[in-house]
Specification:
The chain is built from 13 helices and eleven strands. By secondary structure, the chain is α/β, with parallel strands linked by helices. The two termini are about 40 Å apart. Bound molecules: 6-O-phosphono-beta-D-fructofuranose (F6P). 6-O-phosphono-beta-D-fructofuranose (F6P) binds next to loops.
């Protein structure tokens, strides 16, 4: 029977557990041996107790549990050739020739590097007697399937990533809660949300909660001009009788000179220019925790089924597949194209090509 493994990598998110559960159970239903790699790529490098055969019961109850019960890590060792050599040896020794990776763009980039040098890793393991001739022949090809688990929704080639909807839901609840105390005290709040270099969480939270203003990296406001813009909006809304002012800031927000827009600076402007009693709230990791929402459970489950199908259908001449979600359909395309497109967004921002960055991000903002 076919043997494949699944691991979760990078920052966790709600929906990784449903993804692992579905891969394990669908894989077993298809007659495969399914392994869970614990602690992300670190577990793959370390091997031993970190690589465990999963059975139907191993994942019982995981559909509604946040985070990832097989653990995750941001692994430095896998970035080295030595680390990847050890990872390859561990896969061969367990008879695993296919790997499903659920993680962010960094984790998926690492996965594709691993696959592209697989041939040379196998050759080196053979020449140093770490594997046998027979193993080298049997494991001449590695199948990698990527699926994106990230609250940031920062991956190109997919409309939404696993965990983003749960995160957004949680952020909305928090902003609503802040809203009641803000209204009571007639205060202003600057609320900083996660998202790394991507403004999706901030933008969607602003729409969903009716915030007064939002700062995102993809559409920076002119340095020296945003101060006037926020005061103008906050003042107008107050004149219309609003008792609260809510400004949402993506943690990666920039101005047009690519300087970070800091929550404390926004607070100071509102306090000094408008005399508003202003507080800063940084939501932090509360955004990543908690129960996956229904959408993430469904997205993770259907994408994992597609990932296992991709494992079963993969051939050595096919590029590594990337499981996405576009126009309400689970999709499959080349992993490397998705990674390259994602990097182009970051490049465009660094080159101050903001319209281009927004166009490349378009699927994520279109919904
Ligand atoms: O990529 C997910 C994310 O939560 C980002 O939004 C955030 O910048 C980062 O991870 C935080 O990382 P850590 O949990 O390692 O502090």
């Amino acid at each position: 029977p076919k043997s494949f493994a699944i691991l979760t990598s990078g920052g966790d998110c709600s929906g990784m557990n449903p993804a692992v559960r579905a891969a394990v159970r669908y894989g077993i239903a298809k007659g495969c041996n399914v392994y869970g790699i614990y602690e992300g790529y670190q577990g793959l490098v370390d091997g031993g107790k970190y690589i465990r055969k999963m059975d139907w019961k191993s994942v019982r109850g995981w559909l509604s549990v946040g985070g990832t019960s097989i653990g995750t890590a941001r692994c430095m060792a896998f970035k080295t050739r030595e680390g990847r050599l050890s990872a390859a040896e561990n896969l061969v020794k367990h008879g695993i020739d296919s790997l499903i990776v659920c993680g962010g763009d960094g984790s998926l980039t690492g996965a594709d590097v691993f696959r592209s040098e697989w041939g040379s890793l196998i050759a080196e393991l053979l020449s140093t007697d770490r594997i046998t001739d027979q193993q080298a022949k049997t494991f001449s090809h590695l199948t990698i399937v990527g699926m994106v688990g990230s609250i940031d929704n920062d991956m190109a080639s997919t409309d939404i990533t696993i965990g983003a909807a749960s995160c957004l839901h949680r952020v909305c609840e928090m902003v609503d809660s802040i809203g009641t105390t803000a209204s009571s005290h007639s205060r202003a709040f600057v609320i900083e949300v996660m998202g790394r270099d991507c403004g999706w969480v901030a933008m969607m939270a602003a729409i969903a909660t009716g915030a007064d203003f939002v700062f995102i990296p993809e559409q920076p406001l002119a340095a020296g001009e945003w101060q006037e813009a926020i005061c103008d909006v906050a003042h107008r809304h107050r004149e219309m009788g609003k008792r609260k002012t809510v400004i949402i800031v993506a943690e990666g927000a920039l101005d047009s000179s690519l300087n970070p827009v800091k929550s404390e600076d926004i607070k100071n402007i509102l306090t000094e220019r408008l005399g508003l009693d202003t507080r800063v709230t940084i939501l932090g990791h509360i955004q990543r925790g908690g129960t996956p929402c229904a959408f993430d459970r469904i997205l993770a489950t259907t994408q994992s089924v597609a990932a296992v199908e991709a494992v079963l259908q993969s051939t050595p001449d096919m590029p590594s597949p990337f499981i996405g979600y576009v126009n309400n359909k689970v999709t499959s395309g080349p992993l490397m194209d998705a990674v390259a497109l994602t990097h182009q967004v970051a490049d465009a921002i660094h080159k101050k090509e903001f319209d281009r960055a927004m166009q490349l991000r378009d699927p994520q903002f279109r919904q």
